[in-house]
Amino acid sequence: MQKRLPDYLKRPIIDTEKTKNVRRILRENCLNTVCENARCPNKNECYTCNTATFLIMGNVCTRNCRYCNIGCEKPQKLDLNEPLHIARAVKDLGLKYAVITSVTRDDLPDGGAEHFANCIYEIRKLAPDVKVEILTPDFRGSKISLDKIIEANPAVFNHNIETVKSLFKTARPQGNYDISLEVLKYVKDNSQIIIKSGLMVGLGETFEQIEETLLDLRSSGVDILTIGQYIQPSKAHLEVAKYYTPQEFEELDKLALKIGFTHRQIGPLVRSSYRAAELV
After folding, report:
1. If pLDDT is split at 50, 70 and 90, which confidence band does 11 have?
2. Of 86, 133, 158, 244, which shows the fewest CB atoms inside 10 Å?
């Protein structure tokens, strides 16, 4: 039987001039956001703050992660004008800190690394003072792809581990836990970029497994950590095994601090891009 969503995970619908303005700018620039496509519970709060997390390279994915609301279909052709449109939206929104993520594009030779880099370059042309955080797929561990990201030098490189090792193949059947750790470590060892990662809880992991994962992330050079509650997007996705209480999130926060994560965002509704600028 499906567990009932606790009240502390429910968010009100907000519709203000600011949220309408954000949607207008996104629409005019033909842009996707992870806020919409992944059904993020914090969408209205972020739109009210005049910000959004851009989703590049289309809105369908070449992987079928069992927790994610983004569809797995035949990938779309890359829009080579998208980096310029991203930069225009960043400027129009008046952002000081921009967050860009993407679908996974295993069909592309470099996994879309050059497209990520071009977004950063275009933002620097139109809004040179803006700091850019990117949340990327694993690029299948390709060092050539990661070198393109390092050369573009974003302020923050984020790649989410998402879940503990024992559940990885269930949640991310086309991914690899060790490759994700290697990606984080490679960027850490070969740049001065701040490294970030995050995971969901509620898929059936134990507290001990969470601790092991946090130790792995710390050993891989992760500077910033996010942990939030998994919420099932639809009945076709993985069921929630457990809703963590706010008190249990406080325990996770204490654990993360003990392991060495002084910069962290941990709570029921935390997502990888939630209040990203504040953490940096």
Report:
1. low
2. 244
